[in-house]
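Researcher: Excuse me, tokens okay?
***
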Amino acid sequence: MRLDKLTLDDIGPFRHLDLAFPRGQDDTRADVHLLVGPNGSGKSTILEALSQLFTAGHPGFAGRCRSPYATAAVEARGETLAWSLARPKSRHLDWNGIRLANAMNDGFPSHFGRVPGMVLHLTNRPWDELLAKKARFQNQHTLVFAYGSGRRLNTSHLAGVVNLTANPLAEAASFEKPESAGAFFQWILNVVAGRAIAAQQGRDDKARQLGGSLARVKEALRAVTGEQTVEFELNDELTGVIVVLGAQRVPHAQLPAGLVGLLSWVGDLIMRVDRLPWEGDAPFDEREFILLLDEVEVHLHPAWQRRVLPMIERLFPRAQVIAATHSPFIIQSASDAWVHRLAVEDGWSDASPPIRGPIGESYSAITQDILGVDSEFSLAVEADWTTLRALKERVLAGQAPKADFDALAKQLATRGEEIHRLVAVEVRQTERQLALQRHVP
């Protein structure tokens, strides 16, 4: 299931926004949509609006609304789901020329209309109840998973093998997941232990199934870290997971922030999708879902940033990914992405038509052309460079002594090799132009 369009009215920095999500060109990779723009342009607002549409309640989202009639609506396969701050008493919402009924129960008074395959009503149901009814999910279901920039994992000691009974859809579309922050490492412990027990008992099919679950997490870590050896082991007391990366063996409570940040979403996502019973036991890479990511690059070194989207595209080929980023390494790395550029003018934000991902462009070109940063140097060097260029014009006009120009050029040239080369060019050009002036009768 994929979303086709998002519309926002009077929410955040948007008076009105129509944001279309065109399909990618490569059916073997995930559809990726990158939201880029300066701080305050509404990237997080877009993601939180999508989250609000697919959750029972989003703490603080109403505070982003600029009027009592603020509305967010998403379209998919010709159907519309809307969220409205107004909550009309008629239990109908007149929006964009159509009347949307409140098709939910009283637990969702702000939701109107629906999109195909909604599972909003299942998110708070007891998981054992759904399993007892032999619930099965399909690609026609609208499954949404969201991860915010403050994502984290609970790295406290585990209590041995403990069955996970929480509904994997609970908190799935919420950016904050306080109730399930500790579930991932418990799931890893359960899978590693269960795989060993199944192998010992000769249940090879079960061991292979559990091994496949682990393999997806390990593949994600290999793809991003570049390490060929990735394993999960258990300590002797069964109270902790040891993550093996190359020659390093790190207890899960001591993992660096970059790995915690990565596992907090990719590990949690794999765990949730893996736990959902799928019609026909469809392979993981054939399952469709929507992934919302705020600040994909958080806590990641640039070398890892440039590998994240290729990992997502390959590991989740049927997913639709909508992500916000400030990183040129993220923007440059996606092979089949659409880039949505947001800009603020007169206090309101709007989006330009999406462009294809600039996979063939350099980081510096992306920084300038897409992120709008004109200079590659620090603010201090940029200020001195601007002063030097202005001083050059004054020297050539006879309005300033060349000694002032030479002194600033000498000082600026000590800031680094690249700026040294640029300063040398300016000095040569200035001396040549002064020499020509002296020979003009």
In short: The chain has two domains: 5-369, 379-439. The first helix runs from residue 43 to 53. The mean pLDDT is 86.
